[in-house]
Amino acid sequence: MKISEQAYIFKRFLKQSNAFAIQLYKQISAKSTSGNVVISPFSIGACLSLVAMGADGETAVEMFRVLRYGNVDRRQQVAESYGQLMKLLETDTSISAANKVYVKAGYKVKPSFNEVAINSFRSEAQELNFTDNVAAANIINDWVETKTNKKIKNVISPSVLDGLTGMVLINAVYFMGSWKYPFDKAYTYPMPFWISGTESRDIQMMNRRTYFPYKNFEDKGFSVIELPYKNNGASMLVLLPNDRNGIAALEEQLPIIDLWEVTSQLLKTKILLFVPKFKVEFSLDVQGELTALGMGRMFSDFAEFPNLLDTDESLKVSKVVHKAFIEVDEQGTEAAGVTVADVSLTSSQGPPEIRVDHPFVYVLLSREKSVYFIGKISNPS
After folding, report:
1. Domain ranges in the chain?
2. H or E element, residue 275
3. What is the side-by-side order of every strand in the sheet holding 278-285?
4. Closest Cα partner for 146 from 175, 172, 178?
5. Strand runs (DSSP E) across 20-122, as ranges?
6. pLDDT tens, position by position, for the chain (381 residues)?
7. Which residues form the Serpin domain (predicted)?
8. Which pick of 139, 193, 229, 308 has the fewest CB atoms within 10 Å?
């Protein structure tokens, strides 16, 4: 395969992954009652993609369609693209991503699945006695804590593990990035953040005057500011509605926003930027959201996963549990996310001011423009 063709396939894979990320975020955000959201579509997508490698029939068709990969016959391309992505991540000290497969004691992972898991997803397989659910949950949770610098704890409860649990797949991702242009703590002070068009509350607002990639997409009703991290090429995009009450209208547009195109249109502009400090922890079982997107068969008794374990017993996914954490302060961003899939048997006058002082969407992008984390802040804390 020619290098240019490989590059094209990889870029298409990243765009497909971003499209899935935005659709999933939109589905989750619509149901969020807290006002603040953080998810790692990278984590969820990696976990589901690994499961999809063992799927067949209509289950595989659904998973590949919702993940935006297209036809199931692209399975090998997807695996190779993940292998390329994981290899790139190994060179980035700001992020740690890891996959793990826990298999019911006495069962073996099929060699073909194990090969893909190891070579493309950098995954390990380990037998675990799910019948002793407390001990099994402790082993899984300890592994997650280690891989996320102790930011994600108790991702799985003993109550979701039992003798019918055939396999648990986990993806953990941890990001720690320092701003290329850090904010001075001396200039962080309380400012109003508008929770609605008429109600505000004071929160700690950072500010910095420098050149940031920026553009106001007036025809679309929002502005974009890019805050770069140093050394790794990653960045945080802030998508700020031009109207205080514009978050819903912005989220409606997200599925048709091409992040690659948006970032290419940003121009370095000297601005005085005010942006809030915030910390968000978020957890949910995403079964309902994935079902709503069209990936419901894998949770049913009709699920088809013949390529996972050396067993004639039928398998289905009983849970996809996701927990994520993000903290943004003057020095940079710390973020962690983990996904567990439980598979069961069965200009001129000086710089303009940009105030991120009302609900907004943020996207943490890798240097390859892959969505690591995405969320919204409606009520900073």
Report:
1. 5-177+280-326, 185-277+348-377
2. strand 267-276
3. 123-128, 95-104, 165-178, 332-345, 315-328, 278-285
4. 172
5. 36-39, 95-104
6. 555 888 899 999 999 999 999 999 999 998 886 689 999 999 999 999 999 999 999 999 999 999 999 999 999 999 999 999 999 888 888 899 999 999 989 888 899 999 999 999 999 888 999 999 999 999 999 999 999 999 999 999 999 999 989 989 899 999 999 999 999 999 999 999 999 888 999 999 999 999 999 999 999 999 999 999 997 789 999 999 999 999 999 999 999 989 989 999 999 999 999 999 999 999 988 999 999 999 999 999 999 999 988 888 888 998 898 999 999 999 999 999 999 999 998 844 567 899 999 999 999 999 888 999 999 999 887
7. 22-380
8. 139
- The CATH number of 185-277+348-377 is 2.30.39.10
Count Cβ atoms below 10 Å from residue 282 Cβ, excluding itself: 19
**Three-class SS string for 288-304?**
HHHHHHCCCHHHCCCCC
> CA neighbours within 13 Å on the CB side: how many for 368?
24
Q: Give the separation between CA 156 and CA 137, rounded to whole angstroms.
A: 6
Phi, psi torsion values for 110, nearest 5 degrees:
-60, 140
**C-alpha R_g of the chain:** 21
> CA torsion sign, 359 to 364 to 370 to 373?
negative
Q: Distance between CA atoms of 326 and 282, rounded to whole angstroms?
A: 9
Kindly give the residue spans of alpha helices, DSSP state H, lying in the chain: 3-31, 41-52, 57-66, 75-89, 111-121, 133-147, 247-253, 259-265, 287-293
Structure tokens at 160: 């979701």
Unique residue bearing structure tokens 């500010």: 207
Question: How many angstroms separate the CA atoms of 52 and 341, rounded?
Answer: 11
Taking a C-beta distance cutoff of 8 angstroms, is the pair 330, 206 a contact? Answer: yes
Of 178, 106, 170, nearest to 141 (Cα)? 170
CA–CA distances in Å: residue 322 to residues 5, 82, 351: 34, 20, 41
Token pair 């423009």 is found at 369
Distance, CA of 150 to chain centre:
18
Query: What is the C-alpha separation between 354 and 271, in angstroms, rounded?
Result: 7
Identity at 209, one-letter amino acid code: R
